Amino acid sequence: MDNSNETIRRGLAALDMISADHPDRIKLLNSIGLLLYLKYTETKAMIDLQQAIRVAQEVLEATPEGHPNKEIWSNNLGNLLSDKYSSTEEMADLNDAIRVARQTVHMIPKEHKNQPMWLNNFGVLLNKRYLRTGIESDHEEALHVSREAVHITHKDHPELGGRLNNLRVQLGHRYSKTREMPDLEEAIRVAQECVRATPEHHPDRGERLESLGILLDSKHSTTGATADIEECIRVAQESINMTPRDHPYRGSRLNLLGVQLTKRYLKMGEIADIDNAIRITQEAISAVPGQGGQPEGAGWLNNLAICLGQRYAKIGALGDLEQAIQASRGAVNNTPKANSNLASCLCNLGYLLTDRYSRVRQLTDLDEAIMLIRNAIGLTPEDNTSQKAALKNNLGLALGQRFLETETETDIDEAVRAVQEAVDLTSRDNPNWPKRLQNLATMFGKRYANTESIADLEASIRMAQEAVDTTPENIPNRAIYLNSLGKALFARFLKTNTQDDLERVISCSKSALYQPNSLITSRIEAGKSLLACYGFTSDWQLAYDTAKVVLGLIPQLTPRSLRNSDKQHLLSQISGLASDAAAAALEIGKSPLKKHGELAERFTRLRDELEPPIIQNISLTEEDPQPWQAQATRRYDAADEFDRLIAEIRQQPGFADFLLAPSSEDMQAAATYGPIVIINVSGHRCDAVIVERHQIRSLALQNLDSNEIEEIARKGDLGHPDVLEWLWHTIANPVLDALGFRELPSTWPHMWWIPTGLLTKFPLHAAGLFNKSGIDNTLDRVISSYNLSVKAIIRGRQSRIPASIPSASPQALLIAMRDTPGCISQLPFAAKEVSMLHGICKSMAIDTIEPRRYKKDILALLPSCKIFHFAGHANANRVDPSRSQLLLEDWETDPLMVGTLMEMKLRERLPFLAYLSACGTGQIKDDRFVDESIHLVSAYQLAGFRHVVGTLWEVNDETCVDIARMTYEGMRDKGMTDEAVCWGLHTAIREVRNKWVSEMAHSREAGQLTISGSNDGDLGGATLPRDIEASDQDDEKPLYWVPYVHFGV
Question: What CA dihedral angle connects 201, 204, 209 and 211, to 10 degrees?
């Protein structure tokens, strides 16, 4: 720096010593100006730059016209003024720079070697002023001189790429203003030429590829052309490949690729695209520390939320939806209020909350969603029609959902108006046009269901038909539109009985069912519609063929990578499908039932990877690289590998049926210890499928009707004597008669009930006539057990137990909850029950453990116990049965839920009995889940307990003690065998039933009889129920001996 100052000082001294007309004065001035500029580049001191400008101006003024260097020194002055503007951002400096640059290009000869460069620089300056002032003449002149600069630059010139890039920038600005496709296409062409002119290892190639990708993305957003997405993905990937990991623009390039993969997924439906989009967008967020707190990073969080939301829609993993909402909230919180992107972030969060409402049914989610979308609409300028249309569409969807919950007519009316506005604001060539038409069709359909206005129904059909007509056959969403049209046409068929409508429904449903790239849920919905139509036409062979196709799709509906609660939710959407398929098979006379060490090690490893839950509630912006996503991705990969391994195992000799449905021979073998009876309930017909050791047969239940089952279930009080009598006449008596169980046996036969649909709520084991003496009841003819499926019985018996348990210290884990936090009622008999069990277990040489009543303590001991006995309260979760729980001391903060049990590996330890002495442990609160029988009893069975005793509904506190005592005494007397558990419970129920019958007879004689389903009077006069703590307390109070059930082998 000192040398530079000294050189400048000497130069100025020399300048003072020569005359104004000296021939070397101009060269000396120019050298001093150059030294001052070099000093400025080091000091960034404005005084140095100003001195350099003054010297450059003096040089230019002193240079006569025609001097060979005049245009060069004019350009130098322009560059200095441009640098000054870059520092000050003063318009006067920019105007001066443009004035001098214009002067330079006008004085330069046409063939001058520097002409392309100076034209390019002039165009850059004009473009800067255009961006500041919006003066259109500046933009037009910038385009003109930039085109000229490119035109006269030799194709092999090293600066051609940079000049093409400047022209691309200006063309991009023009397209942003005009939105004309020719402008965009010219910008893309120039950007492509720019990339071709840029050497592979040039430091600017990555940026130029990214710019080309952004233009291609804009084109696709307008035209929807797949080729544009493919090209954009290619250039974005190339841009990333040449961008170092610590490059400041790596995040934006990753984000661009993630957006394109998401768009291709939406177009083609390939799950790999959305998986990769999530991974890449997460990498973009992690690429720049702290970026999530910046507006750009907020946009990337919003994109991540969109990706996760799309995968949730495809697969149904609630973890994806929760992470999407977390990312979306991060985007909203980190977007400044004045930022134009805030509205789209609010809209996306509202959309995701609407999705979560559909899953978990929390009305607060829906209310928040509507509020957020309304706020977004208020932030959106009226001339931003594309965003306005998206917001109105999402508002309508949220209002339509709330209408279904609250039945507020103003909501559905506003929903129709909002989606109609969205359609009106959307051009017909917009990729969202058919989707918004379908949404409008749905809103009209919802309003028709409320008002039965034929005008609404016709509008729904018209909108859905147009959505179908404007969607190419290879687009995944077409199946959704076909289903929507079919639903509306079917509603009109039910109204008018027009056969043409029914035929059109069949055509729509067929097309949707056989569209391979659509959502599995859409295809299954179409299949259910076809089954219903064929039921109307009595085309049972077609119904059977359709059922086979639809049932084959179910494994794809619930991939192995999903958690159990996610599978439960998805399977709830096909409730009744299997029963309808079985009914179709029976109608055409077919049976409804289907006829190496290294591999084992791999099988176990992959199974174990798929069993643990995915990590929850992990920050999306922490520095540790996306642990939740890494684990989720590994589960998806493990699931694919698991499926491939199963296929490999089935190729081995003797393993052809590995993990497949059991054969007829296997099922008949399962009936060795007693018949298995599946009660199939369908809207078409009801049957008992009876599996015996020597045959499988069906029995038509002529007096059983699905509508009547629904009506009785809706009324509740399923333990009322009238309901037990109805069960006897319609199901139990015909089945027992067919099996030959007509008398009070000397040796008790044992049978297994497998009810389907709503019948899973009913006490088939207690069916009978109890207003007269005799054996017209199930309890006096057979020992009843239940199970989830024939396959569950087979699997349960694969792990054999000895005829009796040896005295090698088996353990019983005993829990008594007399007082439960948050529950008003006490259970004084719970402690008495457990105290009694200590004595009986001791007489059976079983060690008893009574631990602290906390989840952590229970889970630690559960794997080592043979018996688990719980006396206390239970909670049945209506929305998500996998969250049902036994209430321990810490149930409010760390609940022991069904989902936790189903993920435990207890089966390997061969636990024998789980006795759940609480209310409603076998209760299902939501009819959508009846086919899956997801409740506390089934959870303990699936977790590995060979036998489970539970209850269908509320039970009496003191009666629980008597039932438990007699059940365990039966086990004590007969040994801890499979037969002893169900025999002990059967004996206990009959004993309590007999006492009740005796009391009823005495009441009749006294003229005081009031038969009721309630348990207001019980054995000891105590009236404390073990209430099931649920959000909607059931009013029914069934007979106190009815609800006890045994599940097991």
Answer: 180
| Number of residues that this document lists for the chain | 1049
Q: Tokens 């103003």 label which residue?
A: 410
The pair of three-digit structure tokens given for residue 560, joined into one six-digit string: 């192995």
Residue 34: burial class (beta carbons within 10 Å; 0-12, 13-18, 19+): middle
> Could you tell me which residues are beta bridge partners of residue 678?
689, 754
CA distance 446 to 50: 72
| Phi–psi pair at 122, nearest 5 degrees | -60, -45
Q: Is the dihedral of CA 932, 933, 938, 939 positive or negative?
A: positive
Residue 504 has a pLDDT of: 96
**Which residue is associated with the tokens 């229970």?**
858
CB 1047 within 8 A of CB 789: no
Whole-angstrom distance, CA of residue 573 vs CA of residue 557: 10
Contacts of 158 (CB under 8 A, 6+ apart): none
> Rounded distance, CA 328 to CA 322, Å?
10
How close are the terminal C-alpha atoms of the chain, in Å?
93
pLDDT tens digit string along 453-474? 999 999 999 999 999 999 998 8
- Among 848, 852, 853, 819, CA closest to 834: 848
806-830 mean pLDDT? 82
Please name the amino acid found at residue 816. A
CB 1025 within 8 A of CB 1015: yes
Secondary structure of 485-500 in the HEC alphabet? HHHHHHHHHHHHCCHH
Q: Name the nearest CA neighbour of 357 among 392, 393, 391, 406.
A: 406
Answer positive or negative: Cα dihedral of 139, 140, 145, 148.
positive
Residue pair 645/610 in contact (Cβ under 8 Å)? The answer is: no
pTM of the model: 0.66
**194/167 Cα distance (integer angstroms):** 9
Instruction: Establish how many alpha carbons lie within 13 A of residue 954's alpha carbon, considering only the half-sphere containing its beta carbon.
Output: 23
User: Are 398 and 390 in contact, with CB atoms under 8 Å apart?
Assistant: no
The pLDDT tens digits of the residues spanning 478-489 come to 999 999 999 999
Classify residue 32 by burial, with Cβ atoms within 10 Å: 0-12, 13-18, 19+: buried
SS (H, E, C) 805-868: CCCCCCEEEEEECCCCCCCCCCCHHHHHHHHHHHHHHHHCCCEEECCCCCHHHHHHHHHHCCEE
C-alpha closest to that of 931 among 557, 449, 589: 557
CA 1049 to CA 1045: how far, in whole Å? 13
Contact 755, 799 (CB under 8 A): no
Measuring CA to CA, how many Å separate 338 from each of 341, 343, 381, 601, 771?
A: 9, 10, 12, 58, 76
AA letter at 1014: S
| pLDDT at residue 582 is higher than 50 | yes
Give the Cβ contact number of residue 579 at 10 Å: 25
How far is 47 from 540, CA to CA, in rounded Å? 94
**Cα 224 to chain centroid, rounded:** 26
